[in-house]
Design a protein that fits this description.
The complex is a heterotrimer of chains A (284), B (282) and C (367). Chain A is an all-alpha fold and 284 residues long. Chain A has 14 helices and no strands. The longest helix of chain A is centred in the first third of the chain and has 34 residues. The two termini of chain A are 40 Å apart. In chain A, 51% of the residues are buried. Helix content of chain B is 76%, strand content 1%. Chain B has a two-stranded antiparallel sheet. With 367 residues, chain C is of the alpha+beta class. Chain C folds into two domains: 172 residues, 3-Layer(aba) Sandwich (Rossmann fold); 106 residues, OB fold (Dihydrolipoamide Acetyltransferase, E2P) (Beta Barrel). In chain C, a hairpin with a 2-residue loop joins strand 4 and strand 5. In chain C, helix 3 runs parallel beside helix 5. Chain C is elongated, with a radius of gyration of 24 Å. The two termini of chain C are 35 Å apart. Classes of the chains: A mainly alpha (284), B mainly alpha (282), C alpha+beta (367). At the A-B interface, helix 1, helix 2, helix 4, helix 5 and helix 6 of A face helix 1, helix 3, helix 4, helix 5 and helix 6 of B.
Chain lengths: 284, 282, 367
């Protein structure tokens, strides 16, 4: 019996299933492949087959001042968003796991809402807030928008980490004479290293790519996605493919980095997967 | 074991921040939806239901909302049709490659939404990759115009973007099914097909509901894909909001539509949560 | 038997004469509607090895956590020497804990784990390394000082957890089922080591376990907890020899519970009766299986109680054998006989001395 079932597991699936799987992967990767391929296409985007493979678009890209300004802006926004989201998201996870306070349910739902809510609603509501407060739109308003919306990511990842954390760890620390502050830095944070790094990577990437919220909060300085957006409206060149390819490569590096980190620490935290769990229902 | 001071220290800062930058803006949006714009283009802070009655009266608003829901529904169905068998294959037949394949599904999520939508535009355009390929192999003489600037393009692109979102919770649900249930079912004489429909599928329903909710809610509020690929027939409700906050300059009306969307999303989340609870046996 | 009791009595007097180090006064605790502890009062003497014994859900771990400071007492007080303990945060209490699954910090080495308490207390590094070295020496873990907890065995983790607690020189060490994760052999070995370590360092131990054998082997006194209330606090000998309640008698070792009544100085249980110094009324007696003997026709002491029965079941226990005997009137008795007498079957006669039937209180069912 044992043998039969385990054998069935590895080999006996319908042929259409493997075909379907290959087709879905093809569908998922087709645009990415096209994107990368045409970044080397001398004839511009579109046109089959690609002609004149060239690095010209990368040369143009490297000489393109506004793009690099936008990249720097995006880096600044993403780093600041990581700081805000972790700075408030980690305590929020601790609060949700350990404290009882009036309005906790509402607080929890509110924190998580931006994850699932279309970005336009978060962006517009913040726009109205800044408008009424007379705050001039700038990179700072985007930072506030991203930071606030992405608290949800930090909270879900860290909350999941906290649930796996053996409470006795912190009790042992208190028992050995460390106060709450010492315990937080010496035991809680080191134990949550993986979820925190995972959350930081995810927040960074999401912020780098974010456009729906930024769309409404943008001032004079463009983030990279908004710069690309502006150019798409004017007409498209493979320069955009080139910059997208470079970003894709950086994302891959981040994924590999994260993956290796995760394998090394035996905790099976999956960046992003916790968010799904959180969205599916509720924390706690 | 945690003192009051500890609890206060971790609770108050996020509470205050969230109140200031999430709760207040949503409440402000709610207030805005009752205000109006004067002929001199200033916001009139007097309270009325005018915006909501206009939404009910003018066909284009609710027709666009219905179209958006129809687009989102199609995206949801296609994402599930693509995502479920994929998740099933990975979870039950992934073997040693399971982890790698899982990562491969996730990787596209790390690629910018905008960039992927843009890539579809370069594929579907009249002188895009697909049309020139079809002409190259002499499948067609003239470019197929319906590919780009149509609801089709929007549904295709959003399906591409939200398939991994539908996949993730389904995969998680399938992974949580104890394998000895499958073995027990085989042991009791059920064929693989019967086992799937009687055991595996019912137990994965919470994941399907979660995946469907993601795909539907996230695509419902999209405005960039329609702008980029939708053309006039692919306009969605968020595009109307964007124009009300831009050229059309009617923030209060835009706020009213946004608030309706917010309400729709929150009630969908509420119902999907209920449904998931109903179908989970943990 | 009578000598046993007198030894037990003298043990009690020794432990209560010593100065009480820890004093638990009328502590109660509830989680929501669920009452976990009610009105617990208990003293622990300087240098004493006290075991809190109970089934899971009896509240023993909660009581320990109240002493350590991880739970607050709902009402009542905990005093240590002259200090009110229950209002201090855990890190201000001169009490250390060995956790059930050790709770070693996975990101720190063995050495760093042991040094943790001294580091957060900002002791000079020279002192820290000396004391850590000494503590690791004491638990024979010096060779693994640089290892991470995941790389050492369960028994070794256990020792590190002990060293980590003891290095801080607490006045009282709390141990929360510290041996439960070990397999049987290692467990017995650690029981001996733990007991001799306690003698060596001379501080009080409060040891929580659900294993009555472990409690008997290690403790100076046992506090038996049931559904949040103390059933009996006594030395192992006394708690075995003179159980206060039916529950205690059944929980510790095997026993026969004889239900009956007392009238005019005579106990009556079914067809059995014997003289007893107890007031009239419904009564229960605990009769240990080893206090029942196989009776021969001749060698009968004049005041022993005799009963006839039929052997229905036998269970081999090595040096002894437990047999179930169905007696006249439907009474079932478990009897421990030496293995040399094994193989008895059929109709037999049993006898016991009246003083071995210990009157016990009824233990009311609690929720």
């Amino acid at each position: 019996m044992e043998l039969r079932v385990s054998k069935a597991k590895v080999s006996e699936y319908p042929a259409w299933l493997i075909f379907h799987t290959v087709a879905v992967f093809a569908f998922l990767y087709l645009p990415i492949a096209v994107l990368i391929l045409y970044s080397f296409n001398g004839e511009g985007v579109g046109g089959f087959p690609p002609h004149h493979l060239t690095l010209d678009w990368y040369r143009t890209l490297f000489a393109d001042g506004p793009i690099w300004d936008a990249v720097l802006n995006s880096l600044y926004v993403a780093l600041a968003a990581v700081a805000i989201a972790l700075g408030f998201g980690v305590p929020a996870a601790l609060a949700l796991e350990r404290a009882q306070f009036p309005g906790k349910t509402i607080f929890r739902r509110l924190v998580l809402l931006p994850l699932i809510l279309p970005g336009i609603i978060t962006g517009l509501s913040l726009l109205m807030l800044f408008n009424i407060l007379g705050v001039k739109l700038s990179l700072l308003t985007i930072v506030l928008g991203h930071g606030t919306a992405l608290i949800s990511v930090a909270t879900t990842e860290v909350f999941a980490g906290l649930q796996k954390l053996d409470r006795a760890q912190e009790e042992a620390s208190l028992d050995l004479g460390a106060n709450y502050w010492q315990t937080f830095w010496r035991v809680t944070v080191p134990n949550l290293k993986l979820p925190i790094i995972g959350a930081a990577l995810l927040i960074f990437t999401l912020s780098m790519d974010e456009i729906a919220v930024s769309f409404f909060l943008i001032g004079r300085d463009n983030t990279l996605p908004l710069e690309i957006w502006g150019r798409l409206r004017r007409g498209i060149t493979p320069e955009i493919n080139a910059v997208s390819t470079i970003i894709f490569l950086f994302s891959l590096v981040a994924i590999v980095f994260w993956y290796r980190l995760r394998v090394r620490g035996e905790a099976g935290a999956e960046a992003g997967a916790e968010i799904v769990t959180a969205l599916e229902g509720d924390l706690a | 074991m945690f003192s009051r001071a500890y609890k206060a220290a971790v609770t108050l800062p996020p509470l205050v921040w969230v109140a200031a930058f999430l709760l207040t803006p949503y409440l402000l949006m709610f207030s805005y939806s009752f205000w109006s714009v004067s002929p001199a283009q200033t916001i009139v802070h007097s309270w009325s239901l005018g915006n909501y009655s206009e939404l009910a009266r003018v066909d284009v608003y609710w027709q666009t909302l219905l179209r958006s829901m129809w687009i989102a529904a199609r995206v949801t169905i296609f994402s599930l049709l693509l995502g479920y068998p994929l998740a099933y294959f990975l979870s039950f037949y992934g073997g040693k490659k399971k982890d790698l394949l899982y990562q491969l599904v996730i990787i596209p999520l790390w690629v910018s939404y905008l960039v992927r939508a843009y890539a579809w535009k370069t594929i579907l355009g009249s002188d895009g990759v697909l049309n020139t390929l079809l002409q190259y192999v002499h499948a067609t003489k003239h470019p197929l115009e319906f590919l780009l600037y149509s609801p089709f393009a929007v549904v295709l692109t959003l399906t591409h973007i939200y398939t991994p979102f539908a996949f993730l919770p389904i995969y998680a649900a399938l992974e949580h099914i104890p394998r000895n249930l499958v073995e027990a079912s085989h042991d009791l004489g059920a064929s693989p097909g019967q086992t799937f429909w009687k055991i595996i599928f019912p137990l994965s329903i919470p994941g399907v509901i979660a995946g469907a909710t993601f795909a539907f809610v996230l695509s419902l509020g999209d405005f960039l894909a329609p702008l980029l690929l939708g053309g006039p027939s692919g306009i969605m409700i968020s595009n109307i909001v964007v124009s009300l906050f831009g050229a059309a300059y009617n923030w209060p009306l835009g706020a009213a539509i946004s608030f309706c969307m917010l309400l729709l999303v929150v009630s969908l989340l509420f119902f999907s949560e209920r449904l998931e609870k109903k179908w989970s046996y943990a | 038997m009578s000598t046993d009791v007198s030894i037990a009595r003298s043990d009690v007097s020794v432990s209560t004469q010593r100065f009480p180090l820890l004093s638990i006064r009328n502590v109660a605790k509830r989680f929501g509607k669920n009452v976990v502890l009610r009105d617990i009062s208990l003293d622990v003497a300087e240098g004493e090895f006290l075991t809190i014994l109970g089934e899971s859900g009896s509240g023993k771990t909660t009581l320990l956590r109240i002493i350590a400071g991880f739970e607050s007492a709902g009402s009542g007080e905990v005093w240590m020497a002259e200090e009110r303990l229950d209002q201090l945060p855990p890190y201000r209490r001169r009490v250390n804990t060995v956790f059930q699954h050790y709770a070693l910090f996975p990101h720190l080495t063995v050495e760093e784990n042991v040094a943790y308490g001294l580091r957060v207390a900002k002791r000079p590094e020279a002192e820290i390394s000396a004391r850590v070295g000494e503590a690791l020496e004491k638990v024979k873990m010096s060779a693994h000082a640089k290892a991470k907890p995941a790389k050492i065995s369960g028994g070794q983790q256990q020792r590190v957890a002990l060293a980590r607690a003891l290095v801080n020189r607490p006045q009282l060490l709390l141990l929360d089922e510290p041996l439960s994760a070990l397999d049987a052999n290692l467990r017995r070995q650690m029981q001996v080591e733990l007991k001799s370590l306690q003698r060596e360092v001379g501080i009080s131990f409060i040891f929580v376990t659900h294993d009555q054998e472990e409690a008997m082997v290690m403790s100076d006194r046992i506090a038996l907890l049931r559904s949040g209330e103390l059933e009996q606090v006594a030395t192992p000998r006394e708690i075995y020899g003179r159980p206060a309640t039916a529950y205690v008698a059944q929980f510790i070792g095997h026993t026969n519970l004889l239900k009956g009544e007392v009238r005019d100085g005579m106990a009556r249980c079914g067809l059995l009766q014997w003289p007893v110094a107890a007031p009239d009324g419904i009564a229960q007696f605990s009769l240990r299986p080893e206090n029942l003997r196989l009776a021969t026709e001749k060698s009968t002491s004049p005041d022993s109680v005799r009963v006839r029965g039929r052997v229905v079941q036998q269970a081999f226990h090595g040096a002894t054998e437990l047999i179930r005997v169905e007696c006249a009137g439907g009474l079932m008795l478990t009897v421990r006989i030496p293995a040399s007498r094994s193989g008895v079957t059929g109709e037999i006669a049993l006898e016991f001395s009246p003083e071995d039937a210990i009157p016990v209180r009824e233990s009311p069912e609690r929720i």
